[in-house]
Amino acid sequence: MNPWERKGLDSTGTTAHAEAVARLRASYDAIPLGAPVRLAKPTSNLFRPRAATGTPGLDVSGLDGVLHVDPTARTADVQGMCTYENLVAATLPHGLIPFVVPQLRTITLGGAVTGLGIESTSFRNGLPHESVREMDVFTGAGEVVTCRPGDELFDTFPNSYGSLGYATRLRIDLEPVQEFVALRHVRFDDAEQVARAIAEIAESREWAGERVDGIDGVAFEPGELYLTLARWTDEPGPTSDYTGQQIFYRSIRERVSDRLTMLDYLWRWDTDWFWCSGAFGAQHPLIRRVWPRRWRRSDVYHRMVGLERRFGVADRLDRLAKRPQRERVIQDVELPIERLAEFLAWFDTEIGMRPVWLCPLVTTRDWPTYPLRPGATYVNVGFWGTVHVGPEAVDAPRNRAIEAKVHELGGHKSLYSEAFYDEETFDALYDGAHLAKVKKDVDPGDRLTSLYDKAVRRR
Predict the structure, then answer these.
(1) Which of 42, 47, 92, 207 sits between 20 and 30 A of 302, alpha carbons compared?
(2) Which positions ≥6 away from 36 have C-beta within 8 Å?
(3) Which domains, from first to last, does the chain contain?
């Protein structure tokens, strides 16, 4: 019997997947030696500018589906380029979702595992790679290697961003959920209070006697911070809709409690790309009425950002208005919870960007390429926007200051956006020596771009 059939996959799906992997391999073989290797995928959630290349990307067509959902074992076999939007569409009818569902619809499962994904369940489920049972990785040697937790390739893969290869298939655990999500928006007057509340919830998984299944927060001002506490429920009742005229992040300030369907909860941040849709006028009531719903989503806004960068629209408008030049400050950082208040106070003084997103996480084990202390509570702080700094903006002074402060406070920075570390510091933070060793094993011809070259040199 075909081993895929034992996993519950029919022969048609097995053949189609094998053919897709064969196309991937053929496209890899066609790339000249020494030329950059990149994915030819229709969407991206990276914010790192890269130099253009004259070579085609890897053909990942046919690697974007869900191969099988096993409701009894609560697992799913998923192709690496499958978006979480399509993954959830396959699992939710069974009353199941991935352990961690990142906020944006077009993040891919392979991308979340080779990069870093996070969401409100991360305080109890960790990061997306922690619920992966096994995966097939197409390596720099042009081979597909199946690896599992404890294997060196598997353990080094998170935060490697394609420098070790690309996941073509992943088997992940799923968790049961209910039809609705009851929300409580709890206000706090300072960051110390928020940190204490997060620590308590991470330990007890409840607040004021009520179970907490998901937790994230928003810091609007230094004296106005909220934690949104989510509880899965089957209790019937009316639900809110934030895909229309209403905007989710504004509701946090306006409502003490709320209810969403599970699907709407998972994508509550995607409709307005958190609060960033305001930069395109999509939050203005008149514009919103004529802005098609199908275009109120993060991937549309991401493409608009790409066009803006290409033509320099914001910079031209700033010059006309005689405003100082902007620096784009788009980052997610993880801080030990005991340093959260210190970082936010520094951030308010030195950067001055609000609101910011807060999302607690607790990892279950050590991951060498993103070494957080297992069992310790960290808080992801996400901030996405621009700061008027003047002609020195080209040197990224605010981003560099953030890197230094996060390092000082014992935190780490995700690498989906721009990074400016020197190579020695980078290797110390992300275990460069170990990563180089594993890369040499799985990419002996050094065909794949190194993590430092990708993240810092933008190659």
Answers:
(1) 92
(2) 53, 55, 449, 459
(3) 3-177 (3.30.465.10), 312-420 (3.30.70.2520)
